[in-house]
Structure formats: C-alpha cells, structure tokens
Amino acid sequence: MSEAVAAAARKRGERRKAQTRASLIRAAQQLLAEDRTSVPILEITELADVGMGSFYNHFETKEELFQAAVESALDLQGAVLDAWTEDIEDPAEVFARSFRLTGRIHRVEPQLSRVIISRGMSMISSEHGLGPRALRDITRGCESGRFTIADPYPALLIAAGAALALGQAIHDHPERDDAQLADQVAEDILRMFGVPPGEAAAICRSPLPSVVDLLEQALPNLPHVPQPDSA
Amino acid sequence: MSEAVAAAARKRGERRKAQTRASLIRAAQQLLAEDRTSVPILEITELADVGMGSFYNHFETKEELFQAAVESALDLQGAVLDAWTEDIEDPAEVFARSFRLTGRIHRVEPQLSRVIISRGMSMISSEHGLGPRALRDITRGCESGRFTIADPYPALLIAAGAALALGQAIHDHPERDDAQLADQVAEDILRMFGVPPGEAAAICRSPLPSVVDLLEQALPNLPHVPQPDSA
DNA sequence: GCCAGTTTTGACGAATTCGTCAGAGAGACT
DNA sequence: AGTCTCTCTGACGAATTCGTCAAAACTGGC
C-alpha cells in the first residue's frame, strides 16, 4: 500500500505539469475554433491562466501547440466514436452511426467541431486523424461483402471529405435541420458503398441515442483528454 | 475615334494599378500554397516586387489580401471548368469531366490547387467557391432525371468535400496514380447520384484532353485573372 | 526541516512588425 | 511646358512580440 501511496505521490508533479499542458491545449483549441491563430503567445497563456514562461516549458513554437491541440481534438473524437460503436456488428450500421453522430456533434460541441474542421483536411492521412479509423471500418465492410465498392481508399476520401463539408455546412447554415442533413448525407454514402437503397434509408432513419448523454458517459472514462479544470 | 483613344489612355493608369494588385495577389497565392500566412507584410511586397507602401493602397489587412487571393483562385478554377464543359449535354458527363479534370489540376498546378485546398472548405457556400457551380450542375441533373437523389444539397456536400479531400490526398501521396484515383472517386460519386454502375464506369474511363493543353487555351481568354508578368 | 530536482513565473532587453507620411513618379488634360 | 491627380515608394518612429533568465514555488526524498 505504501508503494501505491508513493506512486501516487511521485505522480503529483507529473500531474501538475500535465495540467499546465492541458490548459494550454484547451486555450489553443478555443482560439483555433475562433480562427484566431496569430495571437501573441502572451494572450494564449493568459487564456490558459498560466504564466507566460510556461509556454516554453511545453512547446517550442505556436504552431507546435496548435498541432497538439488539433491532435488532441481528433484523438478525442476518434475515441468517442469507437466507444459508441464498439458493440455494433454490421459495418453499415457502424458507419452510419459514426457519421450521423459526428453530424450531431457539430452542433452540440461547436468548439471541438470547429477545431477539427479547421485542420481536419490536412490530417486525413495522419494517425491522429479520422482517416485510419474510417479506412478500417470501410475495409471491414468490403471484406465482409457488405460493401461492394472497388477500392476502400477512394471511398474513404469521399466519406472524410463529406464529414468535414457537413460540419462546415452546419456552421454556415444554422437554420437548416442538421440532424436530417447528416442523415441524408450518410444515406447517400451508404448507397454509394453498395448498400441497397431501402436498407440504407432504414439504417439512417433509425433512432439515435442523445449525443449529450453519450458524451457525458464517455468523457470521464477517456484517457489522456484535457479535462476542464476541477476548481 | 479620338474618344476611343482617350478611353484607352484613361485606362492606362487603371491597368498600372491593377498590375500592382495582381502582383500582390500572386505573391499571396504563393505564400498561401506554402502555408506561410503569417509573414511580415514587407516579405509579401518583396515577393510581389512592389514597394512596401503599395500594400496599403490596395488592402487594409493581410487577411483581406489572402481572402482576395483565394477568391481569385476559385474564380479562375470555376471559369476554367465552365469553359471546359460548356458544350457537354449530359449532366453526368459534365460532373465527371469537371471532377476528373480537377483531379488532374491538383498535380499540374500544385499552387492553384494548394490555395484552393487551404480555404476551399470554408468557401463552399461562398459565391466565389465551387459550391454554387456544382449545385447548379447537380440540380440540373436531378431535374433532367439523370440523377435520382432525394436532394441536391447533401450530394453537393459530398462532392465538394470529396474534391478537396482528393486534392489533399494527391499532395500527401504523390506516389499514387492521381488520375486513376480521381476517376475512381468520380465513378463512386456518379453511382451515388443514381447513374447505373456500368454507365458510371464507362463515363469515368473515357479519354480526357490534356489539362496542360486546355489550360493554355483557356488562360489567355479569361477575364480579370492575375496574369504572370509579361516582362 | 532541509535539500535537490523540476516546473512556474513575469519582467526585461532584443528583435520584429506595423502603418504613416512626405516626396517621387507617371499619366491625363490644357 | 505646366499643373493636377492618382499611385508608388521606403524610411522612420511607434507599437508589438519574442524568448531568456534568475528568482520563486512546488515536490519528493531524507
């Protein structure tokens, strides 16, 4: 037991450092969402409520921080989607659910969404991006015969591009029904994958759990996510 | 006739001013393509080979210049695609040709391509973006019964997102066969539009004119495009 | 309580960047 | 040639931004 206590103690310093880093990343995400990436470092640290010098303890340049901020947001989004679809068998349902929930997230978590939109395109091929995850799911669908496309990769490009464009459209036109739009896009893409039209429509109109509830369940259990300060 | 001469003369000043503006826009496009948008204004004017003070004769802020640079690139791309497809009847062929040629442009004109990728997502709904043009073509296809989708708008989002993702992929993975990739993506999207698979495949495998030749023909005739200096 | 190792902090001088402005230059008109 | 107007130009002072560093704060081990 004393070992456990010691271990916990040994990690208090690390946690403090991680807190500072997380604060900086959260501030960077806020600025990224507001599309204000050429702010002075002092403004970032003020927003993060840390000393100006702390920035240089964690990052060499602003760009490095913003990069980390985007990767963190993408990792979060990926982990959340995985958690929400892990118990589904049908690849078509996995894809539809991921896509439709992503659409809902754009409205419920506009900051996360904007961060991803801001740089998601250039991260499609990155290991942090949603590309690898989507490619895995599409490939699974092809191998199981559920999807009948010639090659998963072009399909991935379409799906990933559509996901980002959908988010952009939801932000640009808040008056539209975002849920219906997301469902329609998902349905179109399923048909492109080779899912019969009737089935695609049924899958994309099935009821979804509330994103808010899902997020609340998922967030506390996710590893290495910048948490809001528990002041 | 003296009127015509006077008019020509009156415009010499305007042309000189437009030259300076075009130089600035070309410099901005180069920087945009290199993803270096937080450079000092002096560096932009040096690249444009104009005096530092000239910048403020044309733009209030750097962002305003970059905005103009993106709009100029998008207008060019749109005008070129229109010129290349104006005499085609079948909406499916118009779409396929636009999409496949856009894919080729990413490799042939990497700078134009990168500029569009850098901000194309946020310009989908803009009048300068490719969105309105694509929406027009897709709607035409729906009305003529060639496309059987429920709603043109979600389809537009998929096509636009895919076009940008394709460009990104071509830059990220230069070892891939970009022409084949673009053709496959176009084919998948045509099938999504409701074009029978066999037809979609045939349309997207038909031979294409050389983008280089087309560009050479189209460029000199396009209005209000920043031309390279004819030193 | 004290020391060694780490992280945080913000003040400061150095360096960069900004935006203005007065003068030069080019063109149009008399 | 003279003058008027509009654009171009780059030097300059003002303002911003950077990155370092020595001191302070915190932590863990003794």
From TrEMBL, chains A, B:
It comes from the Bacteria. One of its GO terms (molecular function) is DNA-binding transcription factor activity. Keywords: DNA-binding, Transcription, Transcription regulation. Pfam families: TetR_C_40, TetR_N. Residues 40-59 bind DNA. This is TetR/AcrR family transcriptional regulator. The keyword Repressor does not apply. Residues 18-77 form the HTH tetR-type domain. The lineage of its organism: Bacteria, Bacillati, Actinomycetota, Actinomycetes, Propionibacteriales.
